[in-house]
Each structure stands twice: as C-alpha cells, then as structure tokens.
Design brief:
Blueprint: H1 4-28, H2 35-68, H3 80-85, H4 87-113, H5 120-142, H6 148-186, H7 190-208, H8 215-245, H9 249-263, H10 270-300
Length: 301
C-alpha cells in the first residue's frame, strides 16, 4: 500500500508552495490582505488532495483484499512445524475470510451509493467492485480451494453481488445519461449538443453490452437517439430559414431536405415525424414557387 505519510507530506508541501506563491504575487499587486485568498486557495488544494486519496484508496483497499488477503500483524507467528501442518486448512479459511470481508465492504458501499445525494460515479464504483469480486470468487471456485459448505456460502454471496452489480450498473447508466442529456439540452452550439448526447448514448451502450435485454436501457437509448435526431433537424431547419431570408431559395430547399432526412429516421415518433414532414414540405413548396416566379421575372427582362 502507498505511504499515507508521504502523500500527506507532498500534499502539504504543494499547498504551502501555492500559498507563498500567491501571497508573493498578491503582495506585488498591492493587495491589502494577500494572506486571505492565498490561504483559501491552498486550503482548497489540500482538501481536494485528501478527498481524492480517500476515494482512490477505498477502491484500492477492496481490490487489495480480493487479491492479497488480510494480514493481521497482531497475530503471533506459529512455530514452523505447526505452520507446515496447518498450511492447507489455513489457506482455505484465509481465502474465505478475504471474500467475506470484501462482500461486507461491497454491501457497505452499496448502501452509501444508494443514498439520496450520491453521484452516478458512486454506483459505477460499486459495480466495478462487484465485477472484481465475481472474477476473484469464480477463479477460487474453479481452483477447487473450497469445501462444499464454503463453496455454497461463496456462491450465495455471488448471487447477492450479481444482483448488486446489475442494480448499480443500471442506476449509473440511467443517472449519468440523464445528467448528460440535461447538459446537452443546455448547450448553445449544435455540435456541443450532439457530442454531449453521444456521451450519454455511450453510457447506455456500455451497460447494454452486459445486460442487452434490459427494457429500461432500450427506452433510454431510444429517447437519447430521438434527442440527437431532433437537434439535427432543428439545426438544418434553422440554416434553411436563414438561407430563405437571404433569398438563397435553392440552398434553403437543399437544407430543408437535409432536415427531412434526419426527421424520417425510425427513432423519431410517428406523430412528430408526420407533423414535421408536412411543415417542411410546405416550406419547400413555397420556396419552389418563389424560385419559379424569380425565373419568370428574369426571363421577362
């Protein structure tokens, strides 16, 4: 495990260095209280460093339990003869205790992730822990390291972890895609809207690779795809309206037809597709009439 003291020393040194650097810059700038913003900035850096370590180490500790086991430093070392005679039985019990401890850790973090204020990333962390637990226990069962009773207990734990894995992965996909979809709707540029919505779609697709038959995932994917199509339709309609306003009727017609292409995709609802198609076709017909009238005037001249 990495040294906590070393990490804290480095974090404090960076915070102190930032404090003195900002203090010096503010003194040169004539600030009357340079220590206040410098102290605030260094405190924020230190808090972020400590919080980041807490998140990373919590996940690393569980993986450490699964891969290396729990070493109790207070346990007295048995004589060499006793150690040799009990090596096989202690190895089995040791492995079982490791997975039991990891299961308790997963259940504890699952409860924390299900709290009201938990971010979607917390559910993803629990899902990853569940994946690691299942991979470790599957390997242990295949190696034949458990007796019948312990094997039954491990399989029962696996069933609970599989249910937790599905719950947290689906919760993450739903929550993260919802946040990204909301963010996409708030974006100003069309490219940013589509790019953010595609990130939401990637979250759904990653969950569907594991649970392809989950109805909620298919509904979410359909809703996000419909949003992307509507953004593209609105973009081309806006460009067509600008071209028509400037008198570029042929260009406006082409852009309206681009809008029709995205509007007629299967992800768009039938009623929306029908209403939008009628409106765009009316605009195209009006523009074609204006084009014919312009051509007639030009020939008359």
């Amino acid at each position: 495990m990495p040294s906590s003291t070393g990490y804290l020393v480095v974090a404090i040194a960076l915070a102190a260095g930032l404090f003195f650097l900002l203090w010096w810059l503010l003194v040169r700038g004539g600030d009357e209280a340079p220590w206040l913003p410098a102290g605030l900035a260094s405190s924020v850096v230190l808090l972020v460093a400590l919080s980041a370590r807490e998140v990373v180490m919590r996940r690393a500790w569980t993986r450490y339990l699964l891969e290396n086991g729990i070493h109790d430093t207070r346990r007295t070392v048995p004589p060499s003869s006793a150690r040799r005679s009990s090596s096989r039985s202690s190895k089995k019990g040791f492995s079982a205790s490791v997975h039991s401890a990891a299961l308790r850790t997963i259940q504890k973090q699952s409860v924390a992730a299900d709290s009201l204020n938990a971010a979607p990333e917390a559910h993803l962390d629990v899902a990853q822990l569940c994946h690691d637990y299942l991979a470790s226990t599957d390997e242990a069962i295949r190696s034949g390291g458990y007796g019948s009773e312990k094997g039954i207990a491990i399989r029962a734990g696996q069933e609970r972890v599989r249910a937790l894995h599905k719950h947290h992965l689906l919760t993450w996909a739903k929550g993260q895609s919802r946040l990204l979809t909301h963010e996409a709707q708030q974006r100003a540029r069309t490219f940013d809207k589509i790019e953010t919505a595609n990130r939401a779609l990637e979250c759904i697709d990653s969950a569907m690779r594991i649970y392809p038959d989950e109805p909620e995932l298919h509904e979410s994917k359909h809703a996000i795809s419909e949003l992307i199509a509507s953004v593209k339709v609105a973009h081309w309609v806006e460009l067509a309206e600008r071209s028509a306003f400037k008198g570029h009727y042929r260009r406006a017609i082409d852009r309206y037809r681009d809008a029709l292409f995205y509007l007629n995709q299967d992800v768009v609802k039938a009623d929306v597709r029908h209403a939008g198609t009628e409106r765009i076709e009316r605009e195209i017909a009006a523009l074609e009439t204006k084009l014919r009238q312009r051509k007639t005037r030009q020939q008359g001249q």
